[in-house]
């Protein structure tokens, strides 16, 4: 009598490559994908129809899909996914890929590619998207075999969301999508050389703690990495343990509560005077997930001349790239901050630093140079007032996305951010058109929160077609167009540095113009509620109506003064010591 057969594994399911893509995304926990189909990615779109897990949102332009995936990732603190076809579909994603790269946003971009047998022949809609995006992705994959799909997409997802987050591209040939092979899960992910360091070297932590104890004028310089690493609570504990002033960069707004007594505001070209001068006058800068961007440092050679630098970053390539670090610390901000807090408390037992004189100076700056604005003299709305009221009436539980330019800076300045992931903007790339699709993605990720796209009349015209996506997919975002009828920030520079020669900055959308387009009619054409506001007494009612309207998108055309400017300002190329509080008004300095 023969022994019973040994129990064997069930043979793996046979799936096409396109079915493998969808199954892999489902197993990774992906529930929402933004995209637009085309010939080279049709097999994947056919397979998506059979998924009961994945909600695919059909965008009106691939760039909008890319920014929507970014907004989704940034609002939810998880990996976003966007898809496009080959050639122009893929190249339309390039701006969003670059944007995600600059701001460390975890997104997997999946593109279709022509048949592998046609690659290199200039086939219809062929573009070497792996080659095109190599400098602006964390990693790029080209998949030519169906059996490689599960491991490749799983690896892309892992790379995008770990270490310093960022965009990863997966380009899949059409034959790889069509061929059928056994589906093996979990796949073996082999990433030689990819070992992000999260735990910092103990010796470096102790050195940083010692500098903190010895410092007389320390500052915590907080960047977007604190938000990406979910370290806001740990940051609060470090700040309160040390009593040190905190500044939050454009990418870190909300990482530390604006209302906290230790918060000095945003540093940089349009930062608050206390934040800018705290960095400039400091003797120790503890940089947490920030990268000494030129918009923060001004003229790098003149930045914070007396400061020692503790530089904490998960990406070793950022450390000492711009400013040499006295104490370099490679590690995840969340882990490092916990260790640094403990080390500081131990070191401070022998005597905590006396920061009374430092705080006296900084509080003097706060009193002398509060954030404010000059009322308009032309009878039109003050954009700062409009944005401030949006923040006050919506509250800190809202999410605010911005385009790029003056309205972006005012939104960063005049809305109070009390929690992380509430402020989404294009910081490094400065992408006009980011706001509306990013708000759409954020609303998909956080459907129970109010989501505002604070946009300029220039930015809005670059991606407003995604209002159609919002209307049809029941994504009721609110759009506030800060309509000064011009490319506002460019116009401000023309006013200040080009003798008021307004070359090609008038957009004819606002007051006393032909109003092309008419934003209210445009909103209505897209199925949104369109409102125009021209008087200050109408501002609150319009915002409240928008907050009450949740059955469709809302677009408010706020007709504001073209002469309003963003202040404070550090002119490009000079020391931050020359921060201008308002036009022709800089802080006075002693001999030092």
From TrEMBL:
Thiamine pyrophosphate enzyme N-terminal TPP-binding domain: residues covered: 16-130
Residues of the Thiamine pyrophosphate enzyme TPP-binding domain: 403-558
Cofactor binding: number and manner: Binds 1 thiamine pyrophosphate per subunit.
Residue ranges occupied by any Thiamine pyrophosphate enzyme central domain in the UniProt entry: 207-339
The protein's Enzyme Commission number: 2.2.1.6
Record carries keyword Flavoprotein: yes
Biological process according to GO: isoleucine biosynthetic process; L-valine biosynthetic process
Reactions this protein catalyses: 2 pyruvate + H(+) = (2S)-2-acetolactate + CO2
Listed cofactors: thiamine diphosphate; Mg(2+)
Keywords: Amino-acid biosynthesis, Branched-chain amino acid biosynthesis, FAD, Flavoprotein, Magnesium, Metal-binding, Thiamine pyrophosphate, Transferase
Protein's pathway: Amino-acid biosynthesis; L-valine biosynthesis; L-valine from pyruvate: step 1/4; Amino-acid biosynthesis; L-isoleucine biosynthesis; L-isoleucine from 2-oxobutanoate: step 1/4
MF (Gene Ontology): acetolactate synthase activity; flavin adenine dinucleotide binding; magnesium ion binding; thiamine pyrophosphate binding
Enzyme class: transferase
Cellular-component GO terms for this entry: acetolactate synthase complex
PANTHER family in UniProt: ACETOLACTATE SYNTHASE CATALYTIC SUBUNIT, MITOCHONDRIAL (PTHR18968:SF13), THIAMINE PYROPHOSPHATE ENZYMES (PTHR18968)
Assigned protein family: Belongs to the TPP enzyme family.
Name of the protein in its database record: Acetolactate synthase
């Amino acid at each position: 009598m023969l022994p019973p057969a040994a129990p064997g594994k069930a043979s793996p399911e046979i799936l096409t490559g396109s079915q493998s893509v969808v199954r892999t995304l489902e197993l990774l926990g992906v529930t929402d994908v933004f995209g637009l189909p085309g010939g080279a990615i049709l097999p994947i779109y056919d397979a998506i129809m059979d998924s009961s897990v994945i909600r695919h949102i059909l965008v009106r332009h691939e760039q909008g899909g890319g920014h929507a995936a970014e907004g989704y990732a940034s609002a939810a603190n998880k990996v976003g996914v966007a898809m496009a076809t080959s050639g122009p579909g893929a190249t339309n994603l390039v701006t969003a890929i670059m944007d995600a790269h600059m701001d460390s946003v975890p997104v997997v971009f999946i593109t279709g590619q022509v048949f592998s047998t046609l690659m290199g022949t200039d086939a219809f809609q062929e573009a070497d998207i792996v080659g095109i995006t190599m400098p602006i992705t964390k990693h790029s994959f080209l998949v030519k075999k169906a059996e490689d799909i599960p491991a490749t997409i799983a690896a892309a997802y892992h790379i995008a969301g770990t270490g310093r987050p960022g965009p990863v591209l997966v380009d899949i040939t059409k034959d790889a999508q069509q061929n059928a092979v056994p589906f093996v899960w979990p796949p073996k992910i082999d990433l030689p050389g990819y070992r992000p360091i999260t735990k910092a070297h103990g010796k470096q932590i102790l050195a940083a703690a010692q500098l903190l104890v010895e410092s007389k004028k320390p500052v915590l310089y907080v960047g977007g990495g604190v938000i990406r690493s979910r370290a806001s609570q740990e940051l609060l504990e470090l700040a309160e343990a040390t009593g040190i002033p905190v500044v939050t960069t454009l990418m870190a707004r909300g990482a530390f509560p604006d209302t906290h007594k230790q918060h000095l505001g945003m540093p940089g070209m349009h930062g608050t005077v206390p934040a800018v001068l705290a960095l400039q006058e400091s003797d120790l800068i503890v940089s947490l997930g920030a990268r000494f961007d030129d918009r923060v440092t001004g003229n790098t050679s003149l930045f914070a001349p007396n400061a020692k630098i503790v530089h904490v970053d998960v990406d070793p390539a950022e450390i000492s790239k711009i400013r040499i670090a006295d104490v370099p610390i490679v590690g995840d901000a969340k882990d490092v901050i916990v260790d640094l807090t403990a080390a500081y408390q131990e070191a401070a037992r022998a005597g905590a630093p006396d920061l009374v004189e430092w705080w006296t100076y900084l509080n003097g700056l706060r009193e002398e140079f509060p954030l404010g604005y000059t009322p308009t003299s032309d009878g039109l709305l003050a954009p700062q007032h409009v944005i401030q009221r949006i923040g006050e009436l919506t509250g800190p539980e809202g999410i605010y996305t911005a385009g790029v330019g003056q309205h972006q800076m005012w939104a960063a300045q005049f809305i109070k951010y009390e929690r992380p992931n509430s402020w989404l903007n294009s910081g490094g790339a400065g992408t006009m058109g980011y706001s509306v699709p990013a708000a759409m993605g954020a609303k998909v990720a956080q459907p129970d929160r109010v989501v505002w796209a604070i946009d300029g009349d220039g930015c809005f015209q670059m991606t407003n077609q995604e209002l159609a996506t919002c209307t049809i997919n029941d994504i009721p975002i609110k759009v506030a167009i800060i309509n000064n009828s011009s490319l506002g920030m460019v116009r401000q520079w023309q006013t200040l540095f080009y003798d008021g020669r307004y070359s090609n900055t008038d957009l004819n959308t606002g007051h006393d113009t032909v109003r092309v387009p008419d934003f209210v009619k445009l909103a209505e054409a897209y199925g949104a509620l369109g409102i125009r506001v021209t008087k200050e007494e109408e501002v609150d009612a319009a915002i409240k109506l928008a907050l009450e309207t949740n059955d469709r998108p809302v677009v408010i055309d706020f007709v504001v003064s073209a002469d309003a400017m963003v202040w404070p300002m550090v002119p490009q190329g000079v020391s931050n010591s020359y921060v201008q509080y308002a036009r022709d008004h800089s802080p006075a300095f002693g001999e030092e």
